[in-house]
């Protein structure tokens, strides 16, 4: 067996064929209608009124619910979400870039490359001087337009906060090991010329994959509670940072799309750094609750393995 960690990951994923429902297909008429809806929405990209209200209530919470995992269904109008998914699926393969620990941009003390992971990210564009490299029907929206619109809708949740959003695509073998999203970013203030150190305050994920099942992998595993959340189309998930979680290994050839990112706030202590023992922010979260969630999740994983072995014996495998 190769010593390459990715060779081992993909080898372990080969041959595992979970029951995989086909993704619903749209008729040409439906796709055209969704494209029109998306183009119209892009003039003023914003989430649903109910979704925004729920998000604002989450932000204003001061009790224990402030650290809950927020889930908002139907964040975008249905036609808009369908149109965005169509654009993401049509995005050229060269517009997606592999993201893994060894090629993470940035400093390790800022959080880059500190957790093993593999998935692809993009903004729908290709780095090329050839203006004809990326082509799309003039009647439809390009992936870059759709991603920019969705990012603007997410930014509107906190318009005055620094935020970074991008699209993600997971394919067979992709995963993220347990991590808490704590990371830092340095930004130069245009007015003063001073460098200000920011930290992630809130993480946001908007899923764009239909008919997903837990057995297909790619699930959000919340190690703070031990619960595993299956991606739901057009649903938004948000949580305060730090929160220990992982993305389970993808076991299907279908693609899993999302637009995700973080809202940032200036560090109270501009000298704060991520250390081997964990950041001040991470310690504030509470190790007892995190460890409890990990133990609960491990119990569930063990039960699933036992059930799988029993089924194999019953089938004579």
Residue-averaged pLDDT: 82
Query: Strand-residue fraction?
Result: 15-25%
Unreliable spans: 128-138, 272-279, 282-289
Gyration radius (Cα, Å) is 20 Å
Oligomer: single chain
Shape: globular
Please provide the count of β strands: 12
Distance between the termini: 24 Å
List keywords for this structure.
globular; 30% helix; 22% strand; 317 residues; 7 helices; alpha+beta
Outline the secondary-structure elements.
Blueprint: H1 5-13, H2 28-41, H3 49-60, E1 70-72, H4 78-90, E2 97-100, E3 117-122, H5 143-155, E4 162-170, E5 175-179, E6 184-188, E7 195-207, E8 220-222, E9 227-229, E10 236-240, E11 245-247, E12 256-266, H6 280-285, H7 287-314
Helix pairs in contact: 2-4, 4-5
Q: Could you explain how this protein is built, in words?
A:
This protein is 30% helix and 22% strand. It is built from 7 helices and 12 strands. Helix 2 packs across helix 4 and helix 4 packs across helix 5.
Quick summary:
This protein has 317 residues and is of the alpha+beta class. It contains seven helices and twelve strands. The protein has helices at residues 5-13, 28-41, 49-60, 78-90, 143-155, 280-285, 287-314; strands at residues 70-72, 97-100, 117-122, 162-170, 175-179, 184-188, 195-207, 220-222, 227-229, 236-240, 245-247, 256-266.
């Amino acid at each position: 067996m190769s010593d390459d960690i990715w060779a081992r990951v993909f080898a372990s994923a080969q041959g595992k064929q979970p029951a995989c429902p086909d993704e619903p297909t749209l008729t040409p008429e439906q796709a055209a209608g969704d494209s029109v809806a998306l183009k119209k929405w892009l003039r003023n990209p914003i989430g649903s009124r109910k979704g925004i209200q729920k998000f604002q209530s989450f932000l204003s919470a001061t009790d224990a619910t402030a650290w809950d995992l927020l889930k908002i269904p139907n964040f975008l109008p249905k036609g808009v979400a369908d149109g965005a998914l169509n654009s993401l699926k049509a995005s050229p393969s060269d517009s997606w870039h592999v993201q893994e620990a060894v090629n993470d941009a940035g400093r390790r003390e800022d959080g880059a490359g500190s957790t093993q992971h593999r998935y692809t990210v993009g903004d729908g564009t290709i780095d090329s001087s050839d203006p004809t490299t990326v082509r799309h029907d003039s009647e439809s929206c390009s992936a870059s337009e759709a991603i920019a619109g969705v990012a603007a809708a997410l930014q509107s949740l906190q318009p005055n906060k620094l935020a970074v959003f991008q699209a993600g695509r997971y394919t067979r073998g992709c995963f993220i090991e347990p991590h808490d999203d704590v990371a830092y970013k340095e930004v130069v203030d245009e007015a003063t010329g001073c460098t200000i150190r920011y930290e992630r305050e809130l993480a946001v994920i908007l899923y764009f994959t239909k008919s997903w099942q837990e057995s297909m992998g790619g699930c959000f595993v919340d190690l703070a509670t031990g619960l595993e959340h299956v991606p739901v189309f057009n649903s938004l998930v948000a949580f305060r940072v730090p929160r220990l979680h992982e993305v389970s290994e993808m076991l299907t050839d279908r693609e899993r799309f999302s637009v995700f990112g973080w809202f940032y706030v200036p560090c109270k202590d501009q000298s704060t750094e991520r250390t081997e023992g964990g950041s001040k922010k991470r310690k504030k979260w509470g190790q007892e609750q995190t460890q409890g969630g990990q133990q609960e999740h491990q119990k569930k994983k063990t039960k699933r393995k036992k059930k799988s072995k029993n089924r194999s014996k019953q089938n004579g495998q």
